[in-house]
Amino acid sequence: MADLKLVARVSESLNVTQPAVSKQIAELEKIVGVPVVTRDRNRLYLTPIGNRLADHAKQVLSQIDRASFDIDAMASGVTGSVSIGAVSSVAPTLLPKTIELFKRGAPHASVSVTEGHFVELLPMLKSGALDLLIARIWQPQELEGVDQMTLFSEPVIVVAGRDHPLTMQENLSWSDTIQFPWIFPQANSVARRAVDALFAANGLAPPSNTIASVSLALNLELFRAMPTLGFMPQRLAQAHSIRGDVSVLPLDTRGMLSEAHCFWRDDNMAQNGTPSLFLKCLQQTIEELKTIPFG
Q1: Cα–Cα distance list, 73 to 65, 67, 101, 282, 288 (Å)
Q2: How many CB atoms lie within 10 A of CB 34?
Q3: Residue 144 maps to which CATH number?
Q4: Both 180 and 229 in a single domain?
Q5: Of the listed ranges 24-38, 108-122, 181-195, 208-222, the one predicted with least confidence
Q6: Residues 173, 190: one domain?
Q7: Is it the case that residue 155 has pLDDT exceeding 70?
Q8: Rounded Cα gap, residues 258 and 153, in angstroms
Q9: Same domain for 123 and 162?
Q10: Which of 176, 139, 93 is nearest to 256 (CA)?
């Protein structure tokens, strides 16, 4: 009900009758002792308690999937090594949990991670120096000899230090940001081209007062030391906003770099079980992230 909204869709998804779904809902309400749905004009909606129960159910299902995954990973007996390339905007969100899953299932396999931007990492993937490449994509395209899959979609948003003058400004516009220094991606990167296109779409030339950095640690210190502006993925920005490191500015980034993909050579997965297991761990991490709301 939480995902499909209608009893008819739920019954179709479960391949049971609508009365059977209604009976299960009634039995659930009998167990919890309170209504979990409410009716409005012949439609059923989850109550606040029903929504909370649905959240718990998703977490339970996620744990069951995790248990099954762990057993399969440990039974695979994978050893060897896997080399990962990742852009800095996805590494903190995806890699810690993925590596933890991978090492739990294959403790004797080694992992190496190289951070960089897509333009410099892609040749390393094609040459075999990397097994997998994880990057945010602007204007997706097919790559010869390389397979890819979409991992997730997450907005990239504008952030500033918590004491930045623009955090107090009403009716903020992109033109208001030009006078301040910006932290940008490297000049020859896909991300930098996307940022330049974003300013052009807002009728502006890219700022000339820029600092090219993909180091999260450095960028956070720059936000503290200077009235700088920059971009962060939404999850990362919210986490650092809660800590008081940054403030989120209400500027529309038009979906820039919102889609993250994983890339691998199409001749590599069949020959090497270690990257294949890491990719499965990555997919499991993505599924678990889906059960955590943005904020």
Answers
A1: 12, 10, 9, 13, 17
A2: 9
A3: 3.40.190.10
A4: yes
A5: 24-38
A6: yes
A7: yes
A8: 5
A9: no
A10: 139
* Res. 34: pLDDT tops 50: yes
Tokens encoding 222: 């720059």
Q: Domain with 24 in it: what CATH number? A: 1.10.10.10
- Kind and range of the H or E run holding 220: helix 216-225
**Which of 33, 53, 73 is where one domain is finished?**
73
Question: 103-120: per-residue pLDDT in tens?
Answer: 988 888 899 999 999 999
Q: Specify the DSSP element, H or E, that contains 74.
A: helix 48-76
Residues 6+ away with beta carbon under 8 Å from 205: 199
Percent above pLDDT 90 for the chain: 56
The per-residue pLDDT for 167 is 96
Asked whether residue 52 falls in the same domain as residue 86, the answer is: no
Across the chain, mean pLDDT equals 87
The count of domains in the chain is 3
User: What is the 3-state composition of the chain as percent helix, strand, coil, each rounded to the nearest 5?
Assistant: 45, 20, 35
- Whether residues 269 and 239 fall in one domain: no
Which of the listed residues 15, 49, 73 is the one where a domain comes to its end? 73
**Distances in Å between the alpha carbon of 263 and those of 71, 124, 165, 197?**
26, 12, 40, 24
